[in-house]
């Protein structure tokens, strides 16, 4: 029991070290990246742009809360309608696949079964022909052997 507790304690300590290492690495990487003038400029512009966008959204919400609420509800309704339509189209496609493709597959399966049975019959015929030919060759060889012994 104590060994399990010690193992859990080690895992927690190792996880803590991992998290610290990731954070320190991120901070160092971020600092090194900011040494480049172009990167600093880009980060500054992005932060300023995000601040301006956030201020504009907050101002719009403060000035027109009902309008913003209605706009969000309209967007959600529109997204819901699109999702419902997509789901219905997927159901229709699934039904079409089940009705057409599965039936076609069953037909193909029956055709394959018929072809397999025909091939089996053909193989039986070929096998019988081979046996007959082998018997004839054996008989001919035996006759030739008897003929050859007569002349010797």
From TrEMBL:
Coiled coil spans: 102-136
Keywords noted in UniProt: Coiled coil
Keyword Coiled coil carried by entry: yes
Top-level taxon of the source organism: Bacteria
Protein name, entry field: YtxH domain-containing protein
